[in-house]
UniProtKB/TrEMBL annotation:
The lineage of its organism: Bacteria, Bacillati, Actinomycetota, Actinomycetes, Actinomycetales. Residues 1-169 form the Flavodoxin-like fold domain. InterPro entries: Flavodoxin_fold, Flavoprotein-like_sf, KefG/KefF. It is an enzyme of class 1 (oxidoreductase). Its EC number is 1.6.99.-. The keyword Oxidoreductase applies. Transmembrane segments: none annotated. Keywords: Oxidoreductase. This is General stress protein 14. GO terms for molecular function: electron transfer activity; FMN binding; NAD(P)H dehydrogenase (quinone) activity. It comes from Actinomyces urogenitalis DSM 15434.
């Protein structure tokens, strides 16, 4: 199974959590990691190149920090540009049918804040519903997200455990 991890972090060089997770992903055979902010710092996305990358993958992972309860801006721009009508959806848009789509997300706040009774009164899964709905539209199977909650205060030991869990999650026959 070929897995492609698309990393949408606007400052991966200064990231602790996403940098560690991508390092773990890069160590897995059959996993390609692409840094989208590095490829498209001007937000001018090479649509044909991105579509070829997606066509070659069996599992597509969007990895990003949770910003304002959503994704960084480039992921939204990428979706708008790459997931085109007639290619990704619509009556002839079947290019991604049967593939897996997953997200690996890192909210800064602790997990207990993302509960119905927590500070935000919403779960991370609820915040990720637009991605699950996109998956349905484009004919992919949305798999259980990989969540690294508490990214702002995660200990080094917990981050190492999370990186190992990410490697296992990415290596699983089906996420």
């Amino acid at each position: 199974m070929k897995t492609t991890v698309l990393v949408f972090h606007p400052s991966i060089a200064t990231s602790r959590v996403n940098a560690r997770l991508t390092h773990a992903a890069e160590a897995i055979d059959g996993v390609e990691v692409r840094y989208l902010y590095g490829l498209y710092p001007d937000f001018r996305i090479d649509v044909e190149a991105e579509q070829r990358v997606l066509e070659a993958a069996d599992r597509i992972v969007w990895q990003f920090p949770l910003y304002w309860y959503s994704s960084p801006a480039l992921l939204k721009q990428w979706e708008d540009d790459v997931l085109t009508y007639g290619w990704a959806y619509g009556s002839t848009g079947t290019a991604l049918h049967g593939k897996e789509l997953a997200v690996a997300v890192s909210p800064g706040a602790a997990a207990e804040r993302y509960t119905p009774t927590g500070l935000y009164q919403v779960t991370v899964d609820q915040l990720l519903l637009p991605f699950a709905t996109t998956s349905k539209l484009i004919g992919t199977r949305f798999v259980e997200p990989f969540v690294t909650a508490g990214a702002m205060q995660i200990s080094d030991a917990d981050l190492e455990r999370q990186a190992e869990a990410y490697r296992s999650w990415l290596s699983a026959p089906a996420c």
